């Protein structure tokens, strides 16, 4: 009975985080962009600091008519938002937030699990682009496929490097093996992992699949109302997952300068929030890459850097063990 209660509480905690944190990231993005770009609108709704902006957005999406194009594959069209969103819920189950088994489920091959499931989330965009019966949507879906093929490899290689260093595929095991001198040693892999993750989430400057100035809004052009809101929620959930994974793999997770026993979860949260702020900052800082620039960055820069990081990790492991 106690095991069932423990599992229920863990799943409930993961579900609450999944429902709350992406909304916080979305609200924060409104405010950060408003400050950085001098926007008045997001700071006005509700009075103090535009506190009601998120509520207004939710009401707006709920009121919009749910339209399915006449020529669309109705079942696939309706299923795509769920396919885009739910994998991030599964990933959160395996991400540790603190010591003493503070994780939904500790998996022996946790790092492979989270990367594989994150890749499934991109299929939602492919399904939406294919099923919409719209040429702009189809083009956005094809761009999504090309981007996934290009950036999945450097992301996996960078994660493999830190797994080699720790000698385990378990996410809690990687954090327990972490030492602060890993940060300068694995920093290249961390940058590669984070950059490739942004590209998989189609976040600016890697938002070619949803380039509004060229293909309206890519795979999501025909979506309205709550179905479109689910795609936005999937994007913000992906930001939470990417930042949490980066903090776990490359920044020591719950390790902090004042010990991990009592404040471990706080250090994980703080690192995740700082990285999420960086994601928002990048959106308002850099222009969108061209398709050729996007592919060139992956194949000629990120993949060689990831391979070099793996080679360095192998050398360091041999030196340490000898």
UniProtKB/TrEMBL annotation:
It is a multi-pass membrane protein. It catalyses: a quinone + NADH + 5 H(+)(in) = a quinol + NAD(+) + 4 H(+)(out). Its main location: membrane. One of its GO terms (cellular component) is plasma membrane. The keyword NAD applies. One of its GO terms (molecular function) is quinone binding. Its EC number is 7.1.1.-. Keywords: Cell membrane, Membrane, NAD, Quinone, Translocase, Transmembrane, Transmembrane helix, Ubiquinone. The chain crosses the membrane at residues 7-26, 76-97, 109-132, 153-175, 181-199, 228-252, 264-285, 297-320. It is found in: Cell membrane; Membrane. GO terms for biological process: aerobic respiration. NDH-1 is composed of 14 different subunits. Subunits NuoA, H, J, K, L, M, N constitute the membrane sector of the complex. PANTHER family: NADH DEHYDROGENASE SUBUNIT 1, NADH-UBIQUINONE OXIDOREDUCTASE CHAIN 1. NDH-1 shuttles electrons from NADH, via FMN and iron-sulfur (Fe-S) centers, to quinones in the respiratory chain. The immediate electron acceptor for the enzyme in this species is believed to be ubiquinone. Couples the redox reaction to proton translocation (for every two electrons transferred, four hydrogen ions are translocated across the cytoplasmic membrane), and thus conserves the redox energy in a proton gradient. This subunit may bind ubiquinone. Belongs to the complex I subunit 1 family. This is NADH-quinone oxidoreductase subunit H.
